[in-house]
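Students often ask why we bother encoding 3D structure as a string. The short answer is that it lets us treat folding as translation between two languages. Here is a chain of 122 residues written in the first language.
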Amino acid sequence: MNFIIRWIVTAVGAAAAVLLVPGLSTVGSNSTLALAAFALVLSLVNVSIKPIVQLLGSPISVLTLGIFYLVVNALLLELAAWATNGLFGSGIIVDSFFSAFFGSIIISIVSALVNGLISDKQ
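And here it is in the second language, the structure alphabet:
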């Protein structure tokens, strides 16, 4: 159940990022299904790959006072977009690294806000 909630929260964050960041756009016949597929892959990437990459990048993150984590999030967003387009033929198209960078910031902020609202009700 926790993963499904994470998936929905990520989908809400991805929808906000597509609306706010100019370099992000959905591809596919149905944008809702494209966002759901992208959110599923991004949630799986965040659960499986992100902890390993953050552990390996922790020395650089200490030197940059945590800013490197933003770069890691942007790269993982690009990885999830690439995997979603390859697996499902729909998802999100990322135009540039900076689009992924700002998109990952938007997704993180919206996810934190929605998680805060959800945790208050439980």
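Translate back mentally: The radius of gyration is 14 Å. Keep this in mind for the problem set.
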